[in-house]
Amino acid sequence: MASVITTISGLDLHYEVFHPKAEKTVVFLHGFTGSTKTWQHVIERMPENIRIFAIDLIGHGLTASPKNVSSYTMEAQVDLLEAFFEQRQLGNFHLVGYSMGGRTALAYALAHPERIDRLFLESASPGLENELDREKEKRVIII
User: Does position 139 have pLDDT exceeding 80, yes or no?
Assistant: First the structure.
């Protein structure tokens, strides 16, 4: 396993890669307040002929936590992931997302269906349908 921090679109993004020479690829996206460590027990059981990327999403783990809230939009997260996948020269892959990571995985798959071999979502939803409901759910946290 290699733990790496790379700069994508001016932001430090942390990821772990397992079995880097394998041909088939699985990407794991964790849930809210999670990190790459969320997937530790799953990854330990994966076969060695599968290359695995576990990514710390923005504001989580060792990935940057920018003060600019626009960095946290779904569009920004999808763009960041796509730039990461392009930088890593990934072709098609299986995408696995849990909770918030599942919502992010779904948004990514809708934006870039040509990259996704299979999409696996656990405890995820597409989000709130209307603007009023989304506004009610917004939270501002000042640290």
Answer: no
